[in-house]
Predict the structure of Aldehyde dehydrogenase domain-containing protein.
Amino acid sequence: MSSILSRLPFDETLIYINGEWTKSQASQTCRVENPDTAETIATVPECNARDLDLAVQAAYSAFHDGPWVNEYSGAQRRDALLALATAIEESRQDIEELESLNTGKPINDVRVELDDTIDLFRFFAGYADKVEGRHIAAQTNRNLEGYTVKVPVGVVGFINAFNYPICLLAWKVAPALAAGCTVVFKPGPQTPLTTQYFAHLLHKTGKFPKGVFNVVLGGVGVGQALVDHDLVDKIGFTGSVATGKQVIRSTASTRNVRCTSVELGGKSPGVVMPDADLDKTAKLVVSGCMANAGMNCNALTRLWVHRSIYDEFMPRLKAAAEALVLSTPQDTATEMGPLIDKRQYDRVLEYIRIGRDEDQAALLTGGQPALGRGYWIQPTVFYNVSPTARIATEEIFGPVLSVLEPFDELDEVIAIERKNEFGLAAGIFTRRHQDIAKFTRKLRSGTIWVNNYNALYSYLPFGGFRNSGFGRELGYESFDGYLVPKSIIDDISY
Ligand code: NAD
């Protein structure tokens, strides 16, 4: 048994509700795997609607009757979040080991994700004591004083994807707690362990009153029950388009409508212009696509290469993809890990088959399982792919890049990308100012990278257009999404 599993500081068979580790009311359990080997590393409860109800009731009582909202100042919430950031920092080695084991992510990548996680709690702590309203001068009656106060949205139900368990938890939970909300959190069913570790640390700080943060584990059943629960004021969802649409439909069907933010999939284009540095760009494109084994909502998966450099660029791209080190995730030399589970592994292999047989795309490299164990697939690059091919338009969520047929004019690319179902991210590689300006102004994508890819900061909002969803994570915009304004009108002559 891996050393971290033998010294977990929490009991993974329990769930964290109302400030206590409790037994689930359900008898069903979920197997948790190590995707590197496909071995079972833990068994956790598969929560039912009763567990969910207890978690929501706890968050509801904590919000309406507890001290977190009603007694704590913003500065006290700030200090609680800062203490939590320090607690995560002090346990980061354990969390990194656990995250790498449960996700198959290369340990170096997990370290960067932990840097981000800690930074996010500190960043959003800084907003907790800076909630501002506005004074609005009376328009018709000088005796009226109008002003707004911003109040927390209430109980927030979070449903997370499996691909960045601890980091996406921080994206959601840090701003929500800073704003004074209370939380019920459901991680992806494949990757619950670092969420439980997080709950353990939050508890250990002693700074979060009971019911402020609660965890439920499981998949569709408990996720749907959370979306359907009438005491939840906001749903923050990250996942696929199909589930996101289901969540939106459900939140409109409950007795009380509630606000929703949905962070969904992507099929993000990259454009290589004639003046690009081809060696540098090939490496940036490969990491832009293959980071997290391609299980990245903003992965660069549709690549446009200018006709004048197409033939020169392909061998560089092939070499960069083949140079990626696939090895044990805990080895510091490893650059790409396995897919998360058998379902995702089968899905990616099926798309590789579709690329070859149905889309008739040419294979530049990869296309096969790797390492002979677990859920590993080689970094795969197709070229001369039609922009309307299935592998070029559907989200694969694996290490598969489609280099499209060569293009001649940037305007042509922009016109086609306007019809892209998704609008999460895009990239352009050029030093030409006019092309950069045209691309960044015209493209309807939530994030546009120029001569880099995948860099994200706590203070820059992240989110999509069209089927990539709505709402923003990170930045002030995300914090503001957990607040609602109330308008107060006071007659001072009364
Ligand atoms: P998924 O849609 O299968 O599941 C997402 C979450 O929803 C899981 O926790 C799942 O248990 C839960 N769920 C499933 N059915 C539900 C229902 N009916 N009601 C409520 N919850 C339900 O997605 P996934 O495979 O976990 O994640 C991959 C997807 O997430 C990709 O499409 C990826 O692009 C997207 N993603 C988007 C972002 C972003 O910020 N835009 C970030 C990460 C991942």
In short: Residues 107-128 form the longest helix (22 residues).
